[in-house]
Design a protein that fits this description.
Blueprint (H helix, E strand, L loop, with lengths): L1 H9 L24 H12 L3 H4 L1 H8 L2 H28 L6 H9 L1 H34 L6 H19 L1 H28 L20 H12 L18 H35 L3 H47 L17 H19 L4 H30 L14 H23 L3 H23 L1
Helix pairs in contact: 1-16, 2-9, 2-11, 2-12, 4-5, 4-10, 4-11, 5-10, 5-11, 5-15, 6-7, 6-14, 7-8, 7-12, 7-13, 7-14, 7-16, 8-9, 8-12, 8-13, 9-11, 9-12, 10-15, 11-12, 12-13, 14-15, 14-16
Length: about 475
């Protein structure tokens, strides 16, 4: 902890865009990922447990088929607008640090420090831990490892995928490609199941559209965008994608188009297989549809598909999370050991191990505190949307601050689309704060950020002493 405090103290000097160098190693990220590799990484991050859990909630909150599909389509459009904004940032300032790098250039290292604090301590590591537990829960149904089976599986999968990523970027990207393809095929299996055994005629009345926008449409949109969440992580691999700066634009657009088509087909199949009322009432939509179409075999297969979805998201999230740690090591001398890039493996090995260690600590804490990981992840939504909002505003700041920098891609209809993105982030920040307050998780967000503030003050005092 003392070393970490010293690291934070070293970060508090410098000006935006010109951080003190940590004397980076000669090795650096290389362009080794194809567009297909990158699309599979982003698809793997985005398609997680949300699409298997949230369709009933969205259906119940919107109240009709029209508004339900409207929420999923509107969410896809807003995600695409955000992706176009990130495409400009990622092509203009390609860096393994992603948002961290953009925030540093726009606002200076104090702001980006708090982003890094939240991301490293709980946002990405907590998400990986939660996904590891989801994987463990479903694998335990296939083969139980005893009383603490889910915990054992969670620990094993974090260690195993860390090892895969340590082998190198090629190994992890190939693994990701296979898992992402299988994951999409699994979702399409549910689509087939839904249309093979449609709901009985008359058993699925379509709720009336009603007058005006449903009162809970905004909350439904929060869940929809959570399900689309993760597309922005393309920024973390922008410096490693072959094909020039504009290749990352293809990655973002193709990823979202693929995900949107799969999601809409998936929701349509749930509607066909269960009917609107059945969809709203279902607790495990994919399992219900598969069981109806293919019996117990289909139900078991769905368990494997959900486990695979968690596995795919863990691997992809782990890959991009290490890039933030690597960027911290590049910027701050005290954390230099994380800023080493292994040229032979095309990976920041120590940064990967650091992500793994923090994740395992969260897993162990959650093991003695049932629901602990979910509680930690619940609070991250307001923090996440706060920094995404700052990144969106940063696009305006960086255009003003660096007008001379070449921009291989400029967001269309500037400034209209960036304003739409910023307003969306502001709205979702508000909705996530309301949701977090209702679930009594806001105090965790406050505690974590206050801890970061205390460390920041201590680091300032340490530097001036």
């Amino acid at each position: 902890m003392r070393g970490f405090l010293l690291f934070l103290g070293a970060t508090m000097s410098g000006t935006p865009g010109t951080p003190e160098s940590a004397t980076p190693t000669t090795a650096a990220p290389r362009k080794v990922l194809s567009v297909f590799d990158a699309v599979m990484i982003i698809t793997g991050i985005v398609i997680g447990g949300g699409i298997f859990s949230f369709p009933p909630l969205v259906a119940g909150m919107t109240g009709s088929v029209e508004w339900m599909f409207g929420a999923w389509i509107f969410g896809a459009v807003l995600a695409l607008v955000g992706a176009l904004c990130y495409a400009e940032l990622a092509t203009t300032f390609p860096n393994a640090g992603g948002d961290y790098h953009f925030l540093t250039r726009a606002y200076g290292r104090d702001v980006s420090f708090f982003f890094a604090w939240a991301r490293v301590t709980v946002i990405t590591t907590g998400a990986i831990a939660l996904l590891a537990f989801i994987f463990g829960d479903y694998m335990s149904r296939v083969l139980s490892l005893g009383e603490n089976s889910s915990v054992i599986y969670a620990v094993l999968i974090v260690i195993g995928l860390t090892a895969v990523n340590i082998v190198g970027l090629r190994a992890s990207s190939r693994t990701q490609n296979v898992m992402s393809v299988l994951e999409v095929l699994g979702l399409l299996f549910v689509v087939v199941a839904g249309f093979v055994a449609p709901a009985a005629t008359g058993a699925a009345p379509v709720a009336p559209t009603g007058d005006g926008i449903p009162a809970l449409f905004g909350t439904a949109l929060l869940f929809v965008l959570f399900t689309y969440g993760g597309w922005n992580d393309a920024a973390y691999i922008s410096a490693e994608v072959k094909g020039g700066s504009r290749a990352i634009v293809k990655v973002l657009v193709l990823s979202l188009l693929l995900i949107t088509v799969v999601y809409l087909l998936f929701v349509a199949s749930l509607l066909a297989g269960l009917g609107f009322d059945g969809l709203k009432a279902s607790k495990q939509v994919a399992a219900d549809v598969a069981q109806k179409a293919f019996g117990s075999f289909g139900e078991k297969l769905i368990g494997a598909i959900v486990a695979l979805a968690a596995l795919t998201s863990i691997n992809a999230t782990m890959l991009v999370a290490a890039r933030v740690n690597y960027s911290l090591g590049q910027d701050w001398p005290i954390f230099r050991f994380m800023g080493r890039w292994n040229a032979r493996r095309d990976a920041p090995i120590v940064a990967l191990v650091t992500t793994s260690v923090i994740t395992l600590l969260i897993v162990l804490v959650a093991a003695v505190n049932e629901g602990g990981v979910k509680f930690l992840v619940d609070f991250t939504a307001p923090v996440f949307w706060l920094f995404i909002l700052l990144t969106g505003l940063g696009l305006f700041v960086l255009r003003f601050r660096y007008p001379q920098v070449a921009r291989p891609f400029k967001v269309p209809l500037y400034p209209i689309l960036p304003i739409v993105f910023v307003c969306t982030c502001l709205f979702l920040l508000y909705r996530s704060l309301v949701f977090t307050l209702e679930n009594q998780a806001i105090q965790v967000a406050i505690y974590v950020m206050l801890a970061g503030f205390v460390v920041w003050v201590a680091a300032r005092l340490k530097k001036s002493a």
